[in-house]
């Protein structure tokens, strides 16, 4: 199954993707995670991406498209994949279509959450410095404050989750990414789910629109 997970920053893409890829046994391709790893490692890609990310802007299309194309060529993508945070512009979506001519996308799942929920989720998000798992101070706190349940890594707040940058990211989303809702609707691929409910409810709705039995 080839799935795109769409939604504004904080909608719950990463949270749902983590569960979905385990259930569907497909790789999770999250461009934001790829960039954060590159920044952490100080690679050339990381150096290029950092200034855009810190400003809440999108990394230029040609950089992102190149990375995703390369990733989709890997053998583990033969049986399908879940794209999280890509595409984010119409140009990226068109490049993806072109790249997947003989194996098109099956579903574009749009997690639709209320604006106030997005802001609250972004501001309370905390990430494990070791494994990247995400928590929320209120909605999904770790067992021990500031420490990852899985590997004991320290939790931190993403640089771009501060109030000012988050506001910019939400604006960029409205301007550049939200047109993709219509793009996939016109192709008959869009599946809308209610993102303003608890994570379990969102997960069930996604499985339902994908036609997958839980269990
Ligand atoms: P995205 O990848 O779309 O930016 P995340 O999955 O990282 O979003 O979720 C943003 C924050 O909101 C995280 O701290 C996460 O724990 C929390 N969260 C995710 N889904 C829900 C939900 N349905 N209800 C409440 N909090 C949620
Ligand atoms: P969120 O969880 O808030 O949706 P991501 O982790 O997906 O955010 O992305 C973080 C940042 O990485 C974005 O603000 C942007 O700078 C960059 N980025 C990620 N994916 C893309 C993409 N497809 N195109 C351009 N920039 C991207």
Describe the fold and architecture.
With 215 residues, this protein is of the alpha/beta class. It has a domain at 2-26 and 79-127 and 154-210: Rossmann fold (3-Layer(aba) Sandwich), CATH 3.40.50. Helices cover 47% and strands 15% of the residues. The protein has a five-stranded parallel sheet, with helices on both faces. A hairpin with a 5-residue loop joins strand 5 (125-128) and strand 6 (134-136). The two termini are 17 Å apart. The mean pLDDT is 96. The chain binds adenosine-5'-diphosphate (ADP) (2 copies). One adenosine-5'-diphosphate binds next to helix 2 and helix 3. The site of one adenosine-5'-diphosphate (ADP) has 18 residues, from helix 2 and helix 3.
Task: Give the topology, please.
Layout: E1 2-6, H1 13-24, E2 28-30, H2 31-41, H3 44-55, H4 61-72, E3 81-84, H5 90-99, E4 107-112, H6 115-124, E5 125-128, E6 134-136, E7 155-156, H7 163-177, H8 179-186, E8 190-194, H9 199-210
Parallel strand pairs: 1-3, 1-4, 2-3, 4-8
Antiparallel strand pairs: 5-6, 5-7
One adenosine-5'-diphosphate binds next to α2 and α3.
From the alpha-carbon coordinates, what is the Rg to the nearest angstrom? 16 Å
Class by alpha and beta content: alpha/beta
* CATH fold-level name of the domain at 2-26 and 79-127 and 154-210: Rossmann fold
Count all strands and give the number. 8
Strand order in the largest sheet: 2-3-1-4-8
Quaternary state reads single chain
- How much of the sequence lies in strands comes to 5-15%
What is the makeup of the main sheet?
Answer: 5 strands, parallel
């Amino acid at each position: 199954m080839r799935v795109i997970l769409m939604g504004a920053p904080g909608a719950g893409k990463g949270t749902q993707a983590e569960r979905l890829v385990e259930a569907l046994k497909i790789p999770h391709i999250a461009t934001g995670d790829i960039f954060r790893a590159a920044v952490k490692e100080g690679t050339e890609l990381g150096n290029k991406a950092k200034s855009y990310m810190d400003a809440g802007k999108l990394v230029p299309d040609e950089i992102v498209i190149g990375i995703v194309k390369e990733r989709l060529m890997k053998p583990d993508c033969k049986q399908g994949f879940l794209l999280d945070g890509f595409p984010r512009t119409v140009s990226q979506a068109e490049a993806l279509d072109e790249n997947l001519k003989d194996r098109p996308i099956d579903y574009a799942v749009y997690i639709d959450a209320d604006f106030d929920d997005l802001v609250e989720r972004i501001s309370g998000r905390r990430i494990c410095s070791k494994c990247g798992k995400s928590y929320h101070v209120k909605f999904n706190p770790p067992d021990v404050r500031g420490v990852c349940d899985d590997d004991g890594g320290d939790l931190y707040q993403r640089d771009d989750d501060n109030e000012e940058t988050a506001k910019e990211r939400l604006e960029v989303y409205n301007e550049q990414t939200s047109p993709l809702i219509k793009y996939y609707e016109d192709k008959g691929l869009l599946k809308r789910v209610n993102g303003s409910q608890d994570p379990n409810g969102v997960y069930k709705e996604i499985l339902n629109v994908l036609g997958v039995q839980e269990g």
